[in-house]
Amino acid sequence: MFEKTEIVERDGARICLRHHAAKEPARGVVMICHGLAEHAGRYRRFAAFLADRGYHVYAHDHRGHGSTTASDAPIGRFARIDGATIVLADVAAVRALVAARHPGVPVALFGHSMGGMIAMNAAQERPEDYAALAVFNSKLNPGAAGAVGALAIKAERFFKGSDVPSMIGPKATFEAWAKSIPYARTDFDWLSHDKAEVDAYVADPLCGFSATVSMWLDLMVLSRRGGDGERLARLPKDLPIYLVGGGEDPATANGEDMLWLEKRLGKAGARRVTTIIYRNMRHETLNEIGRNEAMLNFAAWLDAALERNVRRAS
Fold first, then answer.
1. Quick one: DSSP state of residue 69?
2. Mean pLDDT for each 10-residue chunk of the chain (314 residues)?
3. What is the pTM of this model?
């Protein structure tokens, strides 16, 4: 059962946290960072799958998402200022709770899309906290277009302020991705070929909202920092890293951004990077047709990664 609770942060924020207990004995813990304009509750099926295989699962709603509440973080905004840093501090708080509940148990950090940016940054900030890292369908390669986009959104902030929905961010992302899908039924067909999953997303009142100007700028910080070579070099060279992309995912240039990240990690000295591009999948691997194969492949990688970690600790 994906039990729901809260962590109360120093600033009074109430971080919504979900936990699915492992079938004992536990192999490890998986911490999940969800994507933009969604929430942790959408990972219920994935959490149950992992729990059945012996993993405790923790997934929290990032600020500005889901059921997490904070005085300066309405839906669509991480924080009034320095949102990227604050979101990473929340991940560290969940990690501290995991350590207290499961001392000595290895922890894998998983992130999808925006959550992949957050997970990569969190691992770079505290590399000693994680025994494995998984990044699914995430853009850590903003490139020249990202730099131009950041300037445009900064101009938008100058004229409109930071606490209003951005017009520029969605046009360059969600709207462009929607237009890339031929004969689309909805504006969110770029998420998955599975019509039921797309319809569930569209019907979910906590999904598909417009992010503020400040959140888009925070995301650009996380993207740029996450793919920075010097920061990638902070990761332990033997850290198991698992990258997944979709060959039909417009959000990651049809998986090319994941292959870029693989090469970037190799240049930074990472020796244990595994990359899979699912040729016929779009953005949400875990909600795609063929997701069972993807989950089984992830679990096999995770079993091997954490088994080696446990052997080293024993």
1. B
2. 90 97 93 98 98 98 98 96 97 98 97 98 98 98 80 89 91 96 97 98 97 97 97 98 98 98 98 98 98 98 85 43
3. 0.96
Cβ–Cβ under 8 Å, residues 62 and 118: yes
pLDDT score of 183: 95
- Bridge partners of 303? none
Classify 58 as helix, strand or coil.
strand
Cα gap 268→163, rounded to integer Å? 37
Rounded Cα distance between 108 and 4, Å, is 20
Which pLDDT score is estimated for 309?
A: 60
The per-residue pLDDT for 307 is 86
Local structure of 169: helix, strand or coil: helix
Q: Is 204 exposed, middle or buried (0-12, 13-18, 19+ CB in 10 A)?
A: middle
The tokens describing 81, both together, are 């200022």
Q: At a CB cut-off of 8 Å and minimum separation 6, what does 147 contact?
A: none
- Closest by CA position to 66, among listed 159, 205, 174, 197: 205
- 3-143+225-313 CATH fold: Rossmann fold (3.40.50)
Give bridge partners of residue 242 from the DSSP assignment.
134, 274
Q: Which of 110, 84, 97 has its CA nearest to residue 31? A: 110
- Which residues contact residue 287 at a Cβ distance below 8 angstroms, ignoring those fewer than 6 apart? 42, 191, 192, 194, 197, 201
* pLDDT at residue 312, as a whole number: 45
